[in-house]
Design brief:
Protein name: NAD(P)(+)--arginine ADP-ribosyltransferase
GO molecular function: NAD+ poly-ADP-ribosyltransferase activity; NAD+-protein-arginine ADP-ribosyltransferase activity; nucleotidyltransferase activity; toxin activity
Distance between the termini: 45 Å
Structural class: alpha+beta
CATH architecture: Alpha-Beta Complex
CATH topology: Toxin ADP-ribosyltransferase, Chain A, domain 1
Catalytic activity: L-arginyl-[protein] + NAD(+) = N(omega)-(ADP-D-ribosyl)-L-arginyl-[protein] + nicotinamide + H(+)
Oligomer: single chain
Strand content: 15-25%
InterPro entries: ADP-ribosyltransferase_ARG (IPR050999), ART (IPR000768)
Order of helices and strands: HHHHHHEEEEEEEE
Subcellular location: Secreted
Mean pLDDT: 91
Low-confidence stretches: 1-6
Length: 237
């Protein structure tokens, strides 16, 4: 692992992709299925292979999600040589302009993953407390500030997953994240909660040398902010 020269920021991630598809979900689904999905499968052999693996998997299991929703979660949670999430998250964190101008690589995965989280959340509308451990350092002078993660962010209902790190840890009170572990390639043992990039949190605690982590942050969900809401679907609205 490469050590960062500077502490990473915790801010509103203003360059990130944050479309929440409020008011345009059906139109965006049509656009993704008609155009983006096949284009993205054709342009990336790796993504095409992983997507087929996911579709084959969800075809063989019962699910409350539709096939594309379940496949998106499976793809996002795959590790090893089949992993996509790292490239996907990097594209989301700084991809605002690319998303607007049509050069974003992952319109289909982004939409299906958002669609899945929102569907699961609609069936379980309660806020959750989850935990995230990392091996990297973040800025600590952020108390009472609002932040977003800037990409889809994995967390867990379990606090004791120490193999993910103890440099910076988060107690997250999320009201828009959803439990995805029943659809994850990791199965249920990590009790994963996936947080969308448009969720805004207030930092209510930033404490150093906590017993379970070098720095512990506590985050309280406050609202959604979607600067890119429906910006792509507008062409067919």
């Amino acid at each position: 692992m490469i050590k960062a020269l500077f502490d990473l920021p915790l801010d509103m991630a203003n360059k990130s992709v944050d479309d929440a598809f409020e008011g345009c979900r059906d139109q965006m689904r049509e656009l993704v299925i008609r155009n983006y999905l096949q284009q993205e499968l054709n342009s990336s052999t790796h993504f095409a292979t992983v997507w087929k693996t996911a579709i084959d998997k969800v075809n063989s299991t019962k699910s409350e999600l539709n096939k594309t929703q379940a496949a998106a979660i499976y793809v996002y949670t795959l590790g090893g040589q089949k992993q996509v999430y790292q490239l996907f998250n990097n594209a989301c964190r700084n991809g605002k302009n690319n998303y607007i101008n049509g050069s974003f690589q992952f319109y289909s995965l982004y939409f299906f993953l958002t669609d899945a989280i929102q569907y699961l959340k609609s069936n379980n509308p309660f806020c959750l407390t989850s935990y995230r451990r990392t091996k990297v350092a973040f800025k600590t002078d952020v108390l009472n500030q609002e932040i977003r993660f800037g990409s889809f962010t994995s967390s867990s209902l379990l606090q004791n997953l120490s193999h993910f790190g103890h440099k910076s840890c988060f107690i997250i009170h999320t009201c828009f994240g959803a439990e995805v572990y029943n659809y994850s390639s990791l199965k249920t043992h990590e009790k994963e909660v996936l947080i969308p990039p448009y969720e805004v949190f207030k930092v209510t605690k930033s404490e150093q040398k906590d017993p379970w982590c070098d720095v512990e942050y506590e985050l309280q969900s406050t609202r959604k902010r979607s600067d890119l809401n429906c910006v792509i679907a507008e062409e067919i609205l």
